[in-house]
Write a structure and sequence with these properties.
This protein is α/β, with parallel strands linked by helices and 199 residues long. The chain has three helices and seven strands. Strands 1, 2, 3, 4, 5, 6 and 7 form a seven-stranded mixed beta sheet that branches.
């Protein structure tokens, strides 16, 4: 009984001190979190879809500088900084994967959500998101570079490889303007990937 009372007293004392872990450290929360969205929402699927037409879209591998909620800025051949005041709602690789899956679904590809079932897709789209940020080494542009790998159909033993690059000029280096330019570039690149997958 004494131990239970002591434990209760300790937990109440800690609760009065506020949170022990503060997300984001001691930095103030950003005014706006940046997000990527597909240009058009995917349609609802109706009716059965043959398994041979299904595709899974993996979260792409990313370099260390993109494994963050900050927005990368290429400032030199071997130098990366982060845009002041810019913070993604979710890491770029995951947001890009969702945008890519939505774009493919909107183009008529049967995209399976591998988190929500055990059905094996006929094909798999994986790849590396090599660049996703602002480049200020010359005229300021945002650049998205995705090295795609399309495997399948099952048992086919083939893999198709292709590099996709999209750039968009930026007139302002304010976080929301840069994120909007990245969204336009990512959507254009995703449309090219969808045409390639369907072809």
């Amino acid at each position: 009984m004494m131990r239970a009372c002591a434990a209760l007293g300790l937990s109440l004392a800690l609760a009065g001190c506020g949170p022990l872990v503060q997300l984001g450290g001691n930095s103030p929360a950003p005014a706006t979190l940046l997000v990527l969205r597909a240009a058009a929402p995917p349609p609802e699927w109706r009716g059965p879809t043959p398994l041979g037409e299904t595709l899974a879209v993996a979260v792409p591998d990313v370099p260390a500088e993109l494994q963050t909620l900050r927005l990368a800025v290429q400032v030199g051949p071997a130098g990366v900084q982060y845009l002041a005041g810019a913070s993604w709602a979710e890491q770029p690789g995951r947001q890009f994967q969702r945008l890519l899956a939505d774009t493919l679904a909107g183009a008529g590809v049967a995209v399976l959500d591998m988190r929500a079932g055990t059905v094996s897709p006929a094909r798999a789209l994986t790849g590396h998101l090599r660049e996703f940020g602002l480049d200020v080494r010359g005229a300021a542009v945002v650049r998205v570079r995705y090295d795609a790998q399309l495997a399948g159909p099952r048992g086919g033993g083939t893999v198709a490889l292709r590099r996709f690059v999209a750039e968009e000029p930026v007139a302002s280096q304010q976080p929301e303007a840069v994120a909007a330019a990245l969204g336009r570039a990512a959507n254009r690149l995703a449309a090219e990937v969808a045409a390639w997958v369907k072809g």
